Amino acid sequence: MEVIPVPVSDVKVRFRLRTPSDAKVNEIAESISQVSLINPITLDSNYNLLAGFHRLLAFKKLERDTIPSIIKDVDNRFSELVEVDENLKRNELNHIETADHIVKREELLRKLGLTYERGDNRFTSDEEKLRIEDIADGIGLSRKSYTQRRQIANIHPEVKDMLVETKWADSLVDLVKLSSETDEIQKKVCNLLITGKSRTWKSAFFHAKLDDFKLKSSPRLDFCVKERWGFPQSIMQFKTYDDDLKKVCNLVNHDDDLRVKKGELRFGELSIKLHQMNPDQCRFAIDYYTQPNDVILEPFNGRSTTAITALSMGRRFIGFEINPKSYSMTKEVLEKHMDVPQDDWRLIEGCGCEMKALENDSEIVDAVFSSPPYYNNAEPYSDNPRDLCNMEVEQFDERIDLMFSHLTRLIKKSNYKERIFHPIIFVLGTARQGEKGILDMSFTFQAIAKKYGLTLWDQQFVKLNCPYLQCSLQRNYELKFVQKNYESQLVWVKF
After folding, report:
1. First vs last Cα of the chain: how many Å apart?
2. Which candidate among 12, 39, 321, 393 keeps its CA 20 to 30 Å from the CA of 255?
3. What structural domains does the chain harbor?
4. pLDDT tens-digit profile of 415-436?
């Protein structure tokens, strides 16, 4: 092997499949300055660069006149193959760049007659050619890993161009998943990631696929209550069904700005997000206690489970929301994904305790269903001081008192003899306050409701899933109380 000096200015560089690394050029230049060039670059007989692009750039950076080179008299296509191989083996490519290199490499191998063509029979062929396993092994990959990486090349060219220089190009599993989607979904996922509307691949796929989905309403559930929940009783537990209703609810519930992290476990590896109401619990209450076309009022819209569920079941909806982000997100989802007339719902940006938008109305509401914030800032929904989640218990109770004064005016009267009921339903919890012990929201709500002449008509305890129970066992034992795993669902009527 003869190494000769070649003028740096004479070396020709063709189109490169990737951008050179400045950091690597600087590293090589430093090494050359100290111990000279250890591995010469490789050129063909026309001084086209076959291997050693970063070394050549380092020599240019050092302003050297010549560079040690090995000259190979090879076919132009083979020269390009050597270049592709070097990039795949030596440079740190992201998965999109790797996929493009793999496809280019296969194309060159095919043109050189080194791979089997469609219709070839490798068992009867006189000439031994490369199988897919051989091609993969040539760049140090298993067949499965090679096939995965090659599949990424199927991503739409526009999408690849937008993602190639971003952090999203480093996720192999997600890029493979993206490559199997339609061009339309690929572009939507890409747009959500690039614009920052989605902060994770999972979120981007979810929103892209539901972008044009509309949840249709039906006058009654298309299943029997008994078959789905068993006999409705005072103590119940609702399963989670990954159906269309839950998917639409998740558009708001899983929004990164709304379902924020309230804690963490495993030294920060596991995030604890805000509690999400099970849509099936909401669906049961609305189906069991209300009728089609009823107007359902939600004083604390939050992440819109009541709104979406009520409208999907053929009810009408009025909701209050104090958080601008939650208000706009709910409005967007209702407009885009609910296949119901816009006259069927009204979302009001304002306080659900004051209800100023309804101050001149009376007996316009058929039912109320809501799950207000817990005491003691258990769920930090916003930083607005007027949000109940940020109030001390005394101030919290004063606002609930104000809310009940308006609900008593707005709810229609029930009639026991005629079996007409217009329920006010609240899902409530408890909190603990050190030596003061349990703060029971249901006790306070009952006292306030009684003050306004409302009758407690029904009571239900809903069992909750407690995924973090094991983390509380020691604390609970030391303080001598058991883990809370229920919510109270109370129903009042006005006779």
Report:
1. 102
2. 393
3. 3-153 (3.90.1530.10), 216-493 (3.40.50.150)
4. 999 999 999 999 999 988 889 8
